[in-house]
Design brief:
heterodimer, A: 91 residues, mainly alpha, B: 457 residues, alpha/beta, Rossmann fold, 3 domains, 6-stranded parallel beta sheet, globular
Chain lengths: 91, 457
């Protein structure tokens, strides 16, 4: 129970900080912002890795591998396209 | 211990990366910081004591990278909304599958909080998965872009949401009821489809933001279930970002969430269309050559891009024309409405791709006072965001929506395929205005002709 409460604190603080930061992102960069947050939410990769590699069961390994694949697509593709977009913005 | 430290470093880097994203000068550095953070988190995780077999991990990482690279480097900027929708669906699927694995592994020994968060994670992950696939299908025009409705739709949707929540509660009471879990998974997949079906093309920006937010919240929920702080933090950032953007989009349309989600916008406006057909006679249309003559005399031009510019892929042609106008001594600016296009910032990205400096891309509040002393407003494939009905017609579905005030400029030129109403299905009095000149045809072809005529002179 106490770890969930710690989690709630972390969630609340991260959400608050995120709110403050994201409000300062200009509309100009809203599409890169979306692809950026999309790629960092690929952090679910860390959970997928354990699911795919822990040998729980055949089903867990299959589902875990699919999850690793999907999350990796988002991480790799997301960072590449965010950078590609940002490269285009010039004064 | 190493894992915990790697997650801590990753979380810190993500936050600094997000902070850098608040300015175009630092944004690229921010992306690199976040990518570094991700790399550290992944390598840290590979040391996890439960991981005994690396072969499937490597397979997944390799396949994901092979698919991810072209998705990052090859997809054209005009396809960004489709691409973002697709990646939300991958994200939703990944997180839902993690939840499924976790549930089947630990259901017997889970605490109430843990099972509740897993239920929530699977629910949101699956809704994001199928919902984003639907959004992708609509954007890609594999599915009809207009709102699709059926009788008692809202009741069924709300009923399904309530049923899903009840299923989550039943899992908290009895964690090992596998059939309840499977039912929750199936229901959530159906719900994703139900939620996006009634939403029309023009409302896509809001839906894409909301799905972004759901994907983030699902990641946070998995962080609670796994007691993994970096997942909670990333999920909170992603969820918060999607939510803020959705709010901004709703504000830019002067509509509420519930109106967007349950309103089936645009499916009702069929009736008044007949009345306006009669007025078509007063439309003043011109040829690209006539337009070029007028442009030659213009001192100030504001370009108003919309989704039509993206469809016609006309952004580079716009830049070429603008260069000639600027060489002739005219100023050219670009008016960006927050909901122009199919996702937040869509127009900015397209124009930046065409090498237009970002200080010429001007937001609605700053550009509106400039229209009255502007010679020509050039509307390219935009419709609802310049529709004066939003100001004058209280019966209009878009009444109250802030619009770009193009009508107050000396002349409005509208590039449009035909007189068909836009995605919202609403007639636009701007097109029959006395200072409006319509140029029908494919926006890119029209712009090419105007540019050729300007260059020849």
């Amino acid at each position: 129970m106490s770890s969930s409460i710690t989690g709630l604190y972390i969630f609340m603080l991260a959400a608050f900080l995120g709110y403050q930061l994201i409000q300062r992102v200009p509309p100009l960069l809203h599409t890169p912002l979306m692809s950026f947050t999309n790629s960092i939410s690929g952090i679910s990769l860390v959970a997928s890795l354990v699911a795919a590699g822990a040998n729980y069961s055949v089903m867990a390994t299959i589902l875990g591998t699919i999850a690793v694949t999907c999350a990796t697509i988002n991480v790799v593709g997301g960072f590449l396209i965010t950078d590609r977009m940002l490269k285009m913005f010039r004064k | 211990m190493i894992i915990t430290i790697s997650y801590f470093i990753a979380s810190t880097l993500f936050l600094f990366g997000l902070k850098d994203l608040t300015h175009p000068n630092t944004a690229r550095r921010g992306t690199s910081l976040a990518a570094l953070g991700m790399l550290i988190a992944v390598f840290g995780t590979l040391l996890h004591h439960e991981i005994v077999d690396y072969k499937w991990i490597i397979a997944g990482l390799v396949i994901g990278t092979v698919i991810g690279i072209p998705m990052g480097l090859k997809i054209p900027m005009t396809k960004m909304p489709e691409r973002i929708a697709l990646s939300h669906s991958f994200g939703g699927l990944a997180i839902a599958l993690v939840g499924v694995v976790e549930y089947y592994r630990h259901a017997g020994v889970m605490g109430k909080v843990q099972i509740g968060t897993i239920g929530f994670e699977v629910f949101l992950g699956a809704v994001t998965f199928t919902g984003s696939l639907m959004a992708f299908g609509k954007l890609q025009e594999l599915l009809p872009g207009r709102p699709m409705t059926f009788p008692k739709q809202n009741i069924i949707t709300v009923g399904s949401i309530v049923a899903a929540i009840l299923l989550i509660f039943s899992l908290i009471v009895l964690p090992t009821s596998y059939s309840a879990f499977n039912l929750l998974l199936a229901l959530s997949c159906v719900l994703g489809v139900l939620v996006v079906l009634p939403i029309g093309g023009a409302d896509m920006p809001v839906v894409i933001c909301l799905l972004n937010s759901y994907a983030g919240l699902a990641a946070s929920a998995s962080g609670f279930a796994l007691n993994n702080m970096v997942l909670i933090i990333c999920g909170a950032l992603d969820g918060g970002s999607g939510f803020i953007l959705a709010l901004l989009m709703c504000k830019a349309m002067n509509r509420s969430f519930s109106n967007v989600l349950f309103g089936a916008f645009g499916s009702v406006a069929a009736a008044p269309r007949e009345a306006a057909t009669a007025e078509k006679a007063t439309v003043r249309s011109g040829t690209p050559e006539e337009a070029a003559k007028i442009f030659k005399a213009a001192k100030s031009v504001i370009v108003v891009p919309g989704y039509g510019m993206a469809v016609a892929q006309a952004q580079h042609t716009v830049r070429e024309m603008a260069s000639i106008l600027e060489k002739n001594g005219a100023t050219v600016k670009y008016a960006i409405h927050p909901v122009a296009g199919r996702m937040p910032g869509h127009m900015n990205v397209l124009l930046a791709e065409a090498d237009i400096p970002y200080d010429k891309l001007i937001d609605i509040d700053d550009i509106n006072p400039e229209f009255p002393h502007t010679d020509i407003s050039l509307v390219i494939g935009a419709n609802d965001v310049v529709n004066p009905a939003a100001k004058t017609d209280t019966a209009s579905p878009i009444y109250g929506m802030p619009i770009l005030d193009v009508g107050s400029s000396k002349l409005v030129m509208v590039l449009k395929r035909s007189m068909n109403p836009g995605f919202a299905g609403i007639d636009n009095a701007l097109f029959i205005g006395s200072n409006t000149m319509m140029i029908f045809g494919d926006a890119k072809q029209t712009l090419l002709k105007i540019t050729a005529a300007l260059a020849a002179a």
